Amino acid sequence: MATSTMLLFPPNISNSLFFSSHTPLFKIPTSAAAASSKTTSCRRLTFTVSASSRALQALIFDCDGVILESEHLHRQAYNDAFAHFNVRCPLSSTDQLLNWTPEFYDVLQNRIGGGKPKMRWYFKENGWPTSTVFDSSPESDEDRAKLIDILQDWKTERYKEIIRSGTVEPRPGVLRLMDEAKASGRKLAVCSAATKSSVILCLENLIGMERFQGLDCFLAGRLKK
C-alpha cells in the first residue's frame, strides 16, 4: 500500500538540503536507526526516491521562517514603533521606552499570534501605556483599539522599509533549492498566513520578480482552506 511521508527539517540544516539532478528524488529510510545514521553523520543530506515511492511533485514554501528569518525584523519594527510614539507601560519601568528583548519576543511570538493581539495581551499584563497618541493611558475600548491600530500600521510600514532596504537576504540555499526544483520539473508554491501585501513585498525583494512570477501557486492572508 502506498503511503505518504512528510519530512520536516529544522532551521539549522536548511543550508544542507539540495536537489539531485537524478530522479527519483527522495529515498525514505526504512527504520529510525537508518534515518539517524544518515542524518547525523553527514553535513549535506542527499535524497533519492525508491521505485516503490511516490515521486515528489511540488514544494510548498512558507514565507516567514522559511524563505527568510523574519522574527528579529518584526521585533525591530515593533521597537521602532514604540520609540516613535514614546510608548511607556506603567507596570514596567516608567523611565524607559517599551522595548521587547529577543528572549521575550521569542516567547511572545510563540504564545500569541498576530501583531495586534500581541500588543493587546502585553498592555493588559503591563498596563495600558502612555504615548504621543494620547496624553494619558487610554481607558475606553475605542481609544485602546485606536492606539493599537496606529502602532500596528506604523510598525507594518517600518517592516516594509526594512525589507526594501536591501539588507535582508533569503535563508541560505533557498534560491538554489527553488531553481533546481523548477529545473527538475517540480512545481513551486508559496503559502503564508501573513498579509498578502507583506508576502508579495518579501517575495519581490528576496526571490526576485522572475521567480515570483514563475510560481505555480501563491496564497497569502486569511484563507478558508
Give a short synopsis of this structure.
With 225 residues, the chain is mainly α. Helices cover 42% and strands 6% of the residues.
What would you note in describing this structure?
InterPro entries: CbbY-like (IPR044999), HAD-like_sf (IPR036412), HAD_sf (IPR023214), PGP-like_dom2 (IPR023198). It holds the Pfam family Hydrolase. This protein is mainly α and 225 residues long. The chain has 2 domains: 44-68 and 169-225, HAD superfamily/HAD-like (Rossmann fold); 71-164, Putative phosphatase, domain 2 (DNA polymerase, domain 1), CATH 1.10.150.240. 42% of the residues lie in helices and 6% in strands. It is built from 8 helices and 3 strands. The chain has helices at 32-40, 71-84, 102-111, 115-126, 141-164, 174-183, 196-206, 209-213; strands at 58-61, 187-192, 217-220. Strands 1-2-3 form a 3-stranded parallel β-sheet. Helix 4 crosses helix 5 (141-164) and helix 5 (141-164) runs parallel beside helix 7. It is elongated.
Defining key terms:
225 residues, mainly alpha, Rossmann fold, DNA polymerase, domain 1, 2 domains, three-stranded parallel beta sheet, 8 helices, 42% helix, elongated, disordered N terminus
**Can you identify the CATH class of the largest domain?**
Mainly Alpha
Strand order of the largest sheet: 1-2-3
Low-confidence stretches: 1-53
- Percent of residues in helical segments? 40-55%
Specify Rg, calculated over alpha carbons: 22 Å
